[in-house]
Amino acid sequence: MVFENKDILELLERYRVIWAISHATSVLHWDSETYMPKNGIMERSVAIGELSVLSQKLLLDEKLVSLVEKLDGLEDLNDYEKGVVRVLKRNIRIMKALPPELVRELAKTAQEARPYWKTAKEKNDFNIFKPYLEKIVELEKKVVEYLGYEEHPYDALLDFYEEGLLTRDVDMMFSKLEPEIRAVLEKVLENDYYPQKHPLEDVKYDVDAMRKVNMEILKLLKYPFESGRLDESAHPFTIHMGLKDVRITTRYEGYDFKRSLLGTIHEFGHALYELQIDERLMMTPIATGVSLGIHESQSRFWENMLGRSRAFTEATYELLKKYLPFLKDYSPEEVYRYFNTVRPSFIRTEADEVTYNIHILLRFKLEKLLITGEISASDVADLWNDEMERLLGIRPKTYSEGVLQDIHWSQGSIGYFPTYTIGTLVAAQIRYHMVNELGSIEELIFNGDYDAIKNYLRDKIHKWGSTYPPKELLKRSFGEEFDPTYFTRYLREKYLS
Ligand code: MG
Hints:
20 helices; binds magnesium ion
């Protein structure tokens, strides 16, 4: 038995209703993004909003809160039980700290801001979005005050998305990353084995054939279709209803097939995390991935360390060629180079492994300055362009390919971006330790021995769910905290040798 303490058992029983609401809400979200008829959106939004209010009420229920308080700090709980208490305590703390009016105003502002952000982006006019960004930043500053922080105001927002993450952690990561990335980039561009542009990026594919490719690849990776699905949506995502129903989506743009393929593998990585959580944790507060950063480490591990590896392009070449006949003009080596083009570019979501984190650094710097009030929303657009030029040597000609490109700020998500970098760094860290224990990953991939990789990830990360907070999970599994040097070493090995 994982859960034995009498009070924990009662707590879990009370929690089960909250879990049921989140289960139902996930189905609603999944449906909204995939098959819901367009006109369903109004009633659906109300339904989801009401369910979230209900769920908050249940979480702040006196009996539940007092059980958590009673159990907090109790030494004779096992690790799983302590995890349950930690997660609930954190959720209650955040929910209690934020006044409902503020939460409502943020949600309302975000909802209003979204169409203006969209129009601003389409018309390349930052002024259309500016007043909303101003308002969102002001509200986020209030969130910071209510949540509280010890060192830096931005800590409050970071912790909201990545439990325990501090501004100084992110400062440390980027101070090591920035010079390394720039050095690697310079050399990659110089010796041009990895091309800046590849002809396959413009080649159109047959969407039905590409659907088959994605299905075949998922079968190869043994994505369990009895516990999951692959559907299509405007923005690919993974969603879990529980441990036995974890669904992913992909999209088909009709050209540049690696986007759809690597996107599918990325979501597979997210899904695998949820699918490999210890079944005994089912329907509890710890039956999900522990944080956005650790989740992203799983998706990026599969997308980059596996999907973009030479072994993978070699092992899947015949399969790809069967459905995508235009590949007959390209060798596996060429496909590998196509998967790994490197160039300074404006758009974060299209950035390669080498330059990606520079895009995050830029956003991190600006967000920090916005939250401390050192700059205001009206400074952001030009600062963005200046920083881009300093960091990557290119200057956006339009706001649409600069400050207006991401949806995050319009949704009120400030403090979210650094979790992407955590994901990249942790993926490289895991890869290093995996090689130490299992030997060459390339060999495993080439031989199709994905089980060895999956089992390793299960034991080190997945099976624990949210039992341990992110930093502690890494310490327990690898004996160390976040360490950016694994990533820079990985870049050097892959791109410079
Ligand atoms: Mg992701």
